[in-house]
Amino acid sequence: MIDWIYPLLLVGAGLIVVSVFTSFIAFRFGAPLLLIFLGIGLAAGTDGLGIEFSDYNMAYFAGSLALAVILFDSGFGTPLKSFRQAAAPSIVLATVGVLLTTAIVGMVARLVFGFGWIEALLMGAIVSSTDAAAVFFLLRVGGITIRDKVRSTLEVESGSNDPMAIFLTIMFVELLVSGASLSGLTSQFLAGFGLQMGLGLALGLLGGAAMVFIINRVTLEGALYPIIVLSMAVLLFAFTGLLGGSGALAAYVAGLVAGNRKVRGRDTLAKFQDGMTWLAQIAMFLILGLLAYPSQFGAVALPALALALVLMFVARPVAVWLCLLPFHYARDEIAFISWVGLRGAVSILLAILPLIAQLENGEALFNTAFIIVLTSLLIQGWTIKPMAQWLGLIVPPRIGPVERVGLELPGNAHHELIVYHVVEGSPVAEGERLPRWARPSLIVRDGHSMRYQYAGRIRPGDYIYMFISPRYTRLLDRLFASPTKVEADDKDFFGEFKINPERPLSALRDAYDAPIGPNISLDKTIAEYMRERLGGGAEQGDRVAIGPLELIVHDADVDGNVTAAGLAIDHDEPKPRVPLFVNGRELLHLVRRRIAMARHRRQTRPEPVQETQVTEDQVAVADQTPSESKTA
User: Fold this and answer.
1) For residue 576, is it within any domain?
2) Is residue 288 part of a domain?
3) Do 480 and 426 touch, CB atoms closer than 8 A?
4) Are 550 and 567 in contact (CB under 8 A)?
5) What is the pTM of this model?
6) Alpha-carbon dihedral sign for residues 2, 3, 4, 5
7) Over 90: is that where the pLDDT of 560 sits?
8) Distance (Å, rounded) from C-alpha 396 to C-alpha 567?
9) Number of domains making up the chain
10) pLDDT tens string 403-461
11) Residue 263 CB-density burial (10 A; 0-12 exposed, 13-18 middle, 19+ buried)
């Protein structure tokens, strides 16, 4: 009676093992890892190895559970500084951007498929959000370091735009099921949007605070803390949805709150959640791959590919450009944000809803969404790094790899045991001294342990044990890092000149005639000015423009203060790689210039000679001789 259990476990575990082992392809060849998981699911499905799976409700349940885990971990891993820096543009992208994408894709879907308006807009809503798992993997694990503002915008947007897409998809499905028209959509949209997002935000804030309170005050076995945190995240996701709110938004906000507070066993929580997020991603993509029938793709292949190209090259860029117009993003930054609009598991998951509702064109919608996701992962996912390099958005490495192991201490000590392996050519191996607050407790050399005081000079191959606060780890990494080759384009990225950030702004004005604003104190240091312009915290590679000058952060401490800076002088503004996306500042400047030119033309235009109408009597008088005129 239970013979089916072992084959099911064998197949499921086997697919996960194969997926994990094939992950080296992604790291070695730059392939989108989630595309590999999806491909394994397709290969194992009905049209591949023949594994039958067509339970749409079970697939949607498993996908929703995985989505709750992924979104909570996305919020947990987002620093509050990054969220503050990118909150406004990201929220606009996650709401207005999703609406614009839905509208543009919907119009094209109506043309290429002949759908009705509601079905066409449903198609647009299904593929309107970027995939958090794909974006986070490519930006955090993909081996590239993007400028902080751009990376933060993409991460916050991808983690927060799913609730809007889910809301729109459910709303359009309900309209189709009920047979209602679009006439009363505005009031229904506003009421539903306010309820879902309001409840999601409020319960997410409360849930995140409750998690922190429970973790820090309840004494449990160490291994149980990650389990209870993840269980509370899923509980919050389900409870919010049960009340009519957005469970996806609640899970993300709760993760954001909990991840930016002091919690017990933070490192253990982060590692456990990383593993569970990977498992959730693998399981979700495998299940969605098993659910599809590639043999049915041919019926919608051409219009689906057309829709995918419109989404990548028209809908997403237009939506991003319009949403970022009020913010200070360079053209190349807008182009990159437009390109990193990967569609993934969420789009396929939402495409299951028309099948569950048994809509007439449910299969066409599902297969189209699947083809769009495959196309996005193949084209966009494989070109993220080359695109970032071409646009000049990758921050050149300033330090090499670090061989370090950390172990968090139990309780609320807020310290951890750090073990560094001293490598050849690192600053400490070359004789640079450790700071006073980082005195090692133990040194292991050639298999023998000794006290730091009696070890003498630190040598390559030593293992240094020390107890420090986690906030100082980043500073020590620079001392123990392997040497890195200075790239040829470092000067282009970090500026040709180094400046002292502790100097006052008046020195910058006197030396370079920098146009400092009238309401800014010239006694303020360059570092203070840069930090204010950057939203209260600086990171390596951040830039601040002052007229033709550009201040560039070379280095920053753990509190976000600028400790080293560079200067680039661009008398001629560099030509952007992608000249299509005019930002708000450039557009305003262009409008002002047009107005000034028109005003100048009006002021310098010569007065026109006034033409007068000459009557016949005036002509007759003009023809008279002077004497005749006098007589007359």
Assistant:
1) no
2) yes
3) yes
4) yes
5) 0.76
6) positive
7) no
8) 16
9) 3
10) 777 766 665 556 778 888 888 888 888 887 787 777 788 888 888 888 887 778 888 88
11) buried
Per-residue b/e over 268-302, b at no fewer than 16 CB within 10 Å?
A: bbbebbeebbbebbbbbbbbbbbbbebeebeebee
| Residue 319 burial (CB count, 10 A) | 26
Question: Same domain for 450 and 345?
Answer: no
> At 66, which helix (H) or strand (E)?
helix 56-76
- 345 in a domain, yes or no? yes
CATH of the domain at 123: 1.20.1530.20
Q: How far apart are CA 528 and CA 556, in angstroms?
A: 12
Residues 475 and 506 in one domain: no
Residue 536 is part of which domain span? Answer: 490-569
Q: Which amino acid is at 155?
A: E
Tokens found for residue 532: 């204010």
For the four alpha carbons of 479, 480, 483 and 486, in that order, the dihedral sign comes to negative
Same structural domain for residues 20 and 81?
yes
Distance from C-alpha of 165 to C-alpha of 590, rounded to nearest angstrom: 35
Q: Within this chain, do residues 201 and 273 fall inside the same structural domain, yes or no? A: yes
Are residues 104 and 202 located together in one domain of the fold? yes
Res 37: pLDDT: 82
Distances (CA, A) of 615 to 172, 620, 621, 627: 75, 9, 10, 22
Domain end marker among 440, 460, 480: 480
Give residue 630's pLDDT.
Answer: 41
> What number of residues does the chain have?
632
Q: 613 lies in a domain?
A: no
Residue 427 burial by Cβ neighbours in a 10 Å radius (0-12, 13-18, 19+): middle
